[in-house]
Amino acid sequence: MQPIIQVQSVCFSYAAEEGKKPAEPLFDHLSLEFEEGSFTAVLGHNGSGKSTLSRLLNGLLLPQSGRVLAAGYDAADEENALAVRKTVGLVFQNPDNQIVSSIVEEDVAFGPENLGLPPEEIRRRVDEALRQVDMTDYRTHSTSRLSGGQKQRVAIAGMLAMHPRCLVLDEPTAMLDPRGRREVLQTVRRLNREAGMTVIWITHYMEEAALADRCVVMQKGGVLLDGTPAEVFARRQVLQSAGLDMPPACRLAFALADVGLPLPCLPLTEEDCAAALARLLGRENNGEGTGAWQN
Ligand SMILES: Nc1ncnc2c1ncn2[C@@H]1O[C@H](COP(=O)(O)OP(=O)(O)O)[C@@H](O)[C@H]1O
Ligand SMILES: [Mg+2]
Question: Where in the chain do CATH 3.40.50.300 domains reside?
Fold first, then answer.
């Protein structure tokens, strides 16, 4: 099957500021593909090119050479512009910059209205999208009174109402509190699992990346690592040299290995870590740990 997104030998530079010499190309023959239905986390230090990549994926930016294909449509072809925007929905970091109406359902209707769809189809899509992000009860609420996580879910609903096949989210949880982060991540994971939505999740949070099918680590406009979370987070030295952290469970596993207690496999979540430790210890309780600190 053809990947839903194909980045083929893309070269891209931002225009030079007036009076300054041209910046080095950010992407120099970058190639990447994303399979339909996959959940990929994109990681990388500030300035590594993650946001630029997200804008190339839905045609907001165009490469100087090479091609970006979304569902086979070349974003550089003017006549494909709408097809590309409808295929790839982009969600940004700050939900306040994406909300355009003061009422939740009006905000979600904005995209489909611009597509010129009939009112009954718009109604159907808005109801469906609000249900998908679990915001139906807030349908008639004022957008300005929502929490950050709720606003971000409304912004996602606005994209879903366009019926995209792929969602690209550029650090969608960076401005949210822990609860908002959980809400948004759970919503998007459910969309991926249940609706088969292709997800490209750009994040700074390693524990979010640990839940993806695939992690792509970018550095200076190139791909430094690309693999499953277990493959990527096993590369401690490479990650350190790129100035990147690891999920807490991996950090603990490496610390245990450093003191001579290597776990049977690299855990990615706290639950994995607890299970691996139990196995390592043969589930024995020698009486030292009473668990009396729990309440
Ligand atoms: N609009 C722009 N004009 C000029 N340079 C930019 C612009 N946006 C980003 N850059 C530069 O491109 C590089 C990659 O930026 P970006 O894609 O935002 O990376 P990331 O999202 O990984 O932090 C950085 O060096 C940044 O300064
Ligand atoms: Mg960015």
Answer: 38-55+86-243
